[in-house]
Amino acid sequence: MRSRLQRVGELLVARRLPILAIFVVAFAACLVAVPNTHFDMSLTPLLRADEALAEEWGTEDVQLTPERDGAPGALLTLDWSRPVRVEDLAWLGELADHGLRILRGFDDAWVIDHRSGKPVPRRFLEIVGDRSLTEAAHDHPPIDGALVSEDGTAVALIVAETDRSRAAVVLDSIVPEHVTWRLISAGAANDARRDYMIADVQRTLTIEAILFGLLLPLLFRSVRSVVIPLGVVMIATAMSFGSLTLLGRSFTILDCAVPGLIVVIGLSDAVHMLHRFEEALGRGLERRRAVVDMIASVGWACILTSITTAIGFLSLIVSDHAAVREFGFKSAYAVMATLATTLTLIPIALSWWPAQRPAPPRVPGIGGFDYRYPRTILVVTALVVAWSSIGATRNHVDAQWLEELPPDDPIVTDLQWFDAHFRGFSRVEFTVQGAFDQPATVRALEALGGRIVASEPDVRFCETFVDWLREILGRPHGELDDNEIRSSIALLRLAGDRFPSHRISREFDRARFVLTTANLGMHRYFELGRLATRYSEGLSPRLEPHLSGDIRVAHESVRLIATTMLESFLISLISITLLIGILYRSARVALISIVPNALPVLLALGLTGWLGIPIRIGLVMLFSLGLGLAVDDSIHVLTRFGQERPYHSSARDALQKTLRSSGGALIITSLILGLGALCHLPSDLRSLQDVGVIVGAIVFSALIADLYLLPLLLEWFDPHPEQQLGPGPDATNPTDEPRRRTPEPT
User: Fold this and answer.
1) How many Cβ atoms from other residues are within 10 Å of residue 728's Cβ?
2) Which phi and psi angles does 154 have, rounded to 5°?
3) Sign of the torsion formed by the C-alpha atoms of 235, 237, 241 and 247
4) How far is it, in rounded angstroms, from Cα 522 to Cα 29?
5) What are 528-548's pLDDT values in tens digits?
6) Minimal CA–CA distance to 523: which of 416, 411, 403, 418?
7) How far apart are CA 336 and CA 343, in angstroms?
8) Following DSSP, what letter does each residue of 238-300 receive, concatenated?
9) Which of 599, 692, 633, 629 is nearest to 265 (CA)?
């Protein structure tokens, strides 16, 4: 393999002009496409993992997030900070005149008027009279806490979602100065996530560029070691995004780690290549011969690290989740595109750069490790495994609707305000089967909802079709007798198009009840599902509630993403281990590589558990990235050890030479990647903040494992001294030293 790569290096140097011309044309096409890159921050691709789930658990509920005539709804609240009266709402009709159409409001809020002694359907505002809205709403459960706040100082409407800036202009021109308006919508949250992501990526890349621009000269002491790596990384980023755009791919919030992945792969390969280039110059090789030697020595390791990382991401294409499959493809594509950019541009740039003398890095090669304390290494490893395993058991998959936004974002604060004044924004839906035209079943359903509301502080209200029965009877409170229930059901059957089909089937054999809650995480959501079953015990007849609705579809999708990516990590680890065994032609080497590759990721899992960081959409992708980082260091050590082993009498001597040559590059790349990960800490998105903590822990723990644990295992389980560990049969002396020969007797 070394001879083949040597020929590739010679070809790159000899044909650099036409190769560079082809590359420039491709880069120009990608660069033109970059401004057209589409960032889809909508959660729809993530929360609609399986249309079968949507059909099974979907909902016709139009209470808070309706779609009417294809128009998605946005929540508009109006706050007077005093009790609202009917005359305060006189100007609401002007909203539609200015293009802000009301999908659900007081015009279609029908209630039953009993003032004449007979139940007569009327609009809610017609029966308010001289009372405040809150006084009138207390007599009508479908209105109280839904359209009118619990303290009566605010109202909530559903309007057709439109551009937030345009809606703001309309609201500012119509809403009176003493009224505070708030607009909450999925579209606004998606726009905010997109804006935060773009700003965070730009900020992080800027900080990394400045940091690496200061750090690389200190490490390599040459201008070329700064300009070439940073230039290659920026070009690789543009090439990856531009080419994916040309392929018709858009980017979701799940793909926010792709830019960091490009930086990681590009800088890691660049540092190893430059390190080897400086070594070759130090041995007296001419500049172009040093470039060829660089490709022959570390090119295969760079190819292997990229292939194994790409395999880790490609394992995601077997996922049942479309967004996860897309993330796996785009990440693997970015890895290989970065590899192609790096292996093309760095040799060409170095062949032209007027390098007359070496600039050895300030971090020297590592030597002198004789591992006199193997027990200490094993004890520390065992303690880390135990600590990480216990922490990993504390992990739980969780997600919230606004989890990625910072806590002081206006959308988050507006939602918190809504939760404090109304029933709650989140809605947990349950479906139950039963004979709901029978009084006993109706009472059991209402009792089940009452138990949950009374026992769970997060639950504000339980809405069932019984609220409509009480509305018909004019009995918002108190126990209903059998005759009242039967008569109200008979009248409800005559409701025509106002029949609450989103709460009860027309056959009265299937019902939904909805718990309105504060903003809940996925863990708490499923816990409520389990608790509802427990609260149904002892009811007669016994009801068995099942979670349903769009929120279940969303949470099931999030859980599918998390579990799929964690499963893919195991698949990736097995696949990479098998690949290492095949390429290095040694099952023993493959088994040895498992420990230093899996240990950093296990430590990251333990760290998330001990720190209480839930496994969210934005976090699970880091474990696949972390596995790629850990494997990169291991492959560089294994490759160099395989090159050195045939020329040394013992594994220890080969390891000493391996660490003396490659150890410095490992430290430099880990330092760069670790500090690069910390650059994500100032981000606004929580997923990018997690990069700083999790990736930093993986990088530094992988470095320690590859400097101490992996060499110890290679020394203990060294194959036969004559067995070549390198992945090719044609390896030559990588150090350009003469092969040792036994002197002939005189």
Assistant:
1) 17
2) -150, 160
3) positive
4) 43
5) 888 999 999 888 888 889 887
6) 403
7) 10
8) HHHHHHHHHTT--B-GGGTTHHHHHHHHHHHHHHHHHHHHHHHHHTT--HHHHHHHHHHHHHH
9) 629
Tokens representing 123? Answer: 């609009």
Average pLDDT of every residue of the chain: 79
Q: Which residue has the higher pLDDT, 183 or 107?
A: 183
Q: Give CA–CA dist 620/132, Å, rounded.
A: 50
Q: Could you read off the pLDDT of 212-244 as tens digits, one per residue? A: 777 777 776 777 777 888 888 889 888 888 888
Specify the range with the lowest mean pLDDT, choosing from 535-544, 555-564, 586-595, 626-635.
Answer: 555-564
Give a three-class secondary structure readout of 714-737: HHHCCCCCCCCCCCCCCCCCCCCC
Q: List b or e across 350-384, with b for residues whose CB sees 16 or more CB atoms inside 10 angstroms.
A: bbeeebeebbbbebebbeebeeeeeeebeeebeeb
Q: Which residues contact 170 (CB under 8 A, 6 or more apart)?
A: 95, 98, 99, 100
Q: Please report where in the chains the tokens 């809150």 appear, as a residue.
A: 134
pLDDT higher than threshold 70 for residue 737: no
How would you class 537 by CB atoms within 10 Å of its CB: exposed for 0-12, middle for 13-18, buried for 19 or more?
Answer: exposed
Mean pLDDT value of segment 698-713: 88
**Model pLDDT, residue 63:** 33
Collapsed DSSP state (helix, strand, coil) of residue 372: coil
pLDDT at 437: 92
Q: What DSSP element (H or E) covers 74?
A: strand 71-79
Sign of CA dihedral 571, 703, 613, 334: negative
User: How many whole angstroms separate alpha carbon 287 and alpha carbon 133?
Assistant: 84
Neighbours of 477 (CB within 10 A): 8
Q: How far apart are CA 148 and CA 150, in angstroms?
A: 7
For 621-644, b/e burial (b = at least 16 CB within 10 A) is bbbbbbbbbbbbbbbbbbbbbbbb
Q: Please say whether the structural domain 2-36+221-393+555-716 has been given the CATH code 1.20.1640.10.
A: yes
Q: Which two tokens stand for residue 87?
A: 């005359």
554 is written with which tokens?
Answer: 């969303």
Give the tokens for residue 33. Answer: 């496409």
**Percentage of residues of the chain with pLDDT beyond 90:** 10
Place of tokens 């000899």: 14
Contacts of 635 (CB under 8 A, 6+ apart): 301, 304, 305, 308, 580
Burial 251-274 (b: 16+ CB within 10 A, else e): bbbbbbbbbbbbbbbbbbbbbbbb
Reported as a single tens digit per residue, the pLDDT across 5-61 is 888 888 888 888 999 899 899 989 988 888 887 766 555 555 554 444 444 434 443
Yes or no: say if 175 and 411 are a contact pair by the CB < 8 Å rule.
Answer: no
The per-residue pLDDT for range 48-99, each reduced to its tens digit, is 544 444 444 344 433 323 333 344 678 889 999 888 888 888 888 888 888 7
CB 676, CB 654: distance < 8 Å: no
